[in-house]
Amino acid sequence: MNKNETLHTNTENIRKNGKELENKLVNIKGWVWNKRSSGKIRFLILRDGKGFIQCVIDNPELFSIFDECTQESTCEIEGILKEDKRSPLGFEILTKTIKLIHKTIDYPITPKEHGTDFLLDHRHLWIRSRKQFAILRIRHSVKHYIREYLNQEGFIEFDSPIFTPSACEGTTTLFEVDYFGEKMYLSQSGQLYQEAGALSFKKVYCFGPTFRAEKSKTRRHLIEFWMVEPEVAFATLEDIIDISQKMISYVIQKVLENNTYELILLERNVEDLRKIVPPFYRITYSEAVDIIKQKGISFNFGDDFGAPEETAISENFDKPVIITHYPKNIKPFYMKIDPQNPEFVLNMDIIAPEGYGEIVGGSQREDDYQTLLNRMKEENIPIEDYQWYLDLRKYGSVPHSGFGLGIERFVAWICKLEHVRETIPFPRMLYRYKP
Ligand code: 4AD
Ligand code: MG
Fold this sequence. Notes:
Blueprint: E1 7-8, H1 11-21, E2 25-38, E3 41-47, E4 52-57, H2 63-68, E5 74-83, E6 91-102, H3 116-121, H4 123-126, H5 130-152, E7 156-157, E8 163-164, E9 175-179, E10 182-186, H6 191-201, E11 203-211, E12 224-233, H7 237-258, H8 260-265, H9 270-274, E13 281-284, H10 285-294, H11 307-314, E14 321-324, E15 347-352, E16 357-364, H12 369-378, H13 387-394, E17 400-406, H14 407-415
Parallel strand pairs: 1-2, 4-6, 7-11, 13-14
Antiparallel strand pairs: 2-3, 2-5, 3-4, 5-6, 8-10, 9-10, 11-12, 12-17, 14-15, 15-16, 16-17
Helix pairs in contact: 5-7, 5-14
Bound molecules: 4-amino-1,4-dioxobutan-2-aminium adenosine-5'-monophosphate and magnesium ion (MG).
């Protein structure tokens, strides 16, 4: 190769193979993220979709084009790649030429602080910011490593439908849609269909958007959120507790290994994440109630935990805590009754540390036809809509279990964010559905 030949590259490549490109002429295309001047030097920070790189400009002949390159203008830069130990990327460019491709005028998001409402109104542009870039790349990795883990473990991805004729997680949070004159709902959970899949393929999962008309406006709730839902035949509650903690720690360790750049941009304390290896802590619902009461929080045994209770519980633990055996009255019809203690069910919730609340909900499923039917009748569930689901207990029934992990809460915890709204490209919330 000719010594002076320009290498068309990007910041991801520089991050991985920077040493090989050092002192070579490189070409990068991107957008002006920020710029500043200091004495006789100008600095232009370019974002190229893969990362951020500082371009140093010391040639006064380039100053006029530098001035033209306003924030978010599109441009192409050529220069010599130099090591820069202070930058998260490890390299900078000593600029030789700048080509302006598109000049941006009056970009609305300036480097000053903006309020959340303003930023959410401009979400289509806000996703270009450094923090959002880091978060959404980690989201991508989380989804990738979840699939990688489950596929390695012999699961197949088995898609549940989004249009569903009946509820999975109770009727209060259903979104109704008109389906050619019939009443249908947007899926709250793909679980019931996964149970059919597990009896056909043994280990399955679905991974997609789910919808809940949640009236609660909290920093943990979205109206549209993504869930991965593994379901396994011939599996007990203990088996899925095992799978869920291994999956969570696999994903976190992979993110630590492969998303160091993003975690640096987010200034995340990675030591807290390194600890996340099985076994997680285990307590029962009753023990969790004791913890809450010891902290002086008033709570009625038998009620469900809300965000304040979950936060209080999680403060006692530096790793996730798995809470099992909740009262059956606060849990859905499909959960298997604990044979030892019929007022409780064989379920588990995983509460993340650092106050991120419940990230996983799962259970062993009721596999006895008559018990399930009785429970559905007790809860006034329209049996005719669930005949197909009951069939699964008539033909080749087997103990089976599964769980759902909410991607946004998981990502919010990994990135240590205040609110889940930043973990999804275009969040849907109680009062926010645009753009
Ligand atoms: O506990 P949930 O409601 O469980 C189910 O839906 C089961 N059918 C899953 C299964 O067993 N296959 O929801 C599971 C997880 C929660 O732990 C939480 O992480 C997330 O989904 N989640 C939400 N995330 C964001 N916004 C919301 N409104 C959420 N509701 C649940
Ligand atoms: Mg739950």
